[in-house]
Amino acid sequence: MRTYKWKLFRNNLDMYALLIPGLAFLILFRYTPMYGIVIAFQDFNIFDGIAGSSWVGLDNFRKLVHSDEFMQVFRNTLIISFYKIVLLFPVPIILALMLNEVGRMWFKRTVQTIVYLPHFLSWVIISGLFINILSPSSGIVNEAIKWMGGQPISFLIDNDFFRGTLVFTSGWKEAGWNAIIFIAAIAGIDQDQYEAASIDGASRIQKMIYITLPGIAPTIVLMLILRIGHLLEADTEQILTMYNPVVYETGDVIGTYVYRVGLGKMDYSFSTTVGLFNSVVAFLLIMLGNFLSGKFVKRSIW
After folding, report:
1. How many CA atoms lie within 13 A of 23 on its CB side?
2. How far is the C-alpha of 202 from the C-alpha of 206, rounded, in Å?
3. Domain named ABC transmembrane type-1: which ranges (predicted)?
4. Is the pLDDT of residue 119 over 70?
5. Residue 54, strand partner residues
6. Each residue of 131-183: pLDDT tens digit?
C-alpha cells in the first residue's frame, strides 16, 4: 500500500507542485501570524516586542467582559449582521431564480453584467457615491423627498437610519456577485427533470419550487453556514468608510472597534483580545450552524 502511494505521488509530481503557492500563502499569511495571539495574554509594548513584554494572563479578557463599550459594540455587530442575513441572504437566491427564467440570452447576460459590476468597486468609491446620493442638502434621494413634501433625512449621521443604509448599500454591492454561486448550482441540475415536469404539465413556478429549490438546497445550506461564521465581521471595511463618531452608538462594530483601539489608542493587547474573541466565536458559530443543519435539514458541510 505504501509503495502504491509513493508511486502515485511520483507520477503526479507536477500536480503536487501546483499546491506549493497555495500552501506557502496559507503558511505565511494564515498560520504564521497566529503567533501574535500571545499578545492577548501580555501587556504588550511595541518597543519591547513579544519576547520582552510582560505576561498578564487573562487580565485582558476580564477587561473585555467588564467593558460597557465593548458590550455596545458587540450588540451592534450582532444586530447589523442579523439584519444582513435576514434581509440580504435571500436576495441572491431570488435573483438567481429570476435570471434562470429569462429566455433571451442577450438580455440575461446584460442583466448579469450590470448586477455584477458594483462588486468590483471598492467601498471607498461606493461610500463616496452614496454620501453624495444621500446628502441632506443636495443628494438626489433627499431632493425626491423634498419634492414629495417631506423633510430631508441625514441617513449617514442619524442613528435611526444608519443601520438601514448599511444593509441597503451592502445588498446593492454584493447581491449580484453572490448570485453567481446559486446560478452555477442551478446550471448543475439535471435538465431531464425539467423536461419531465413539462410533460406532466408543471408550470414555471412549480418547477422552481419542486425542482430548482431542492436542487440548490445543499448550496444554500453551505452558504448560510459560512455566512453565520462571519456573523461578527459585519463588513468592517464598509462601516469604516461610512460611519463617524455621531453614529458610534449604532454603527460601531467589533472590526472598527479593534481598529480604533489598536491603532488609535495603541492598546494592542486589548485589540488582540477582541480579535481572538471574535475568531473563537466565529468558529463556534460555524460548528453550531453545521450541527443544527445536519440535525434538522439533514444537510451539512461535514
Report:
1. 5
2. 6
3. 74-289
4. yes
5. 43
6. 999 988 888 998 999 888 888 888 888 889 999 999 999 999 999 888 988 98
The amino acid present at 20, given as its one-letter code, is I
Which of 214, 173, 175 minimizes the C-alpha distance to 193?
214
E-only strand ranges, 8-56: 42-43, 54-55
Q: Do 232 and 281 form a contact (C-beta atoms < 8 A)? A: yes
Give helix 68-88 / helix 213-229 axis angle, nearest 10°. Answer: 170
265 pLDDT higher than 70:
yes
Q: What is the mean pLDDT of residues 293-298?
A: 72
User: What is the pTM assigned to this prediction?
Assistant: 0.81
Domains defined along the chain, listed by start: 2-29+48-297 (1.10.3720.10)
Say which amino acid occupies 279: S
Q: Which three cell numbers stand for residue 131?
A: 454620501
Q: In whole angstroms, what is the distance from residue 148 CA to residue 145 CA? A: 5
Determine the Cα–Cα distance for residues 166 and 161; give it in Å rounded to an integer.
Answer: 9
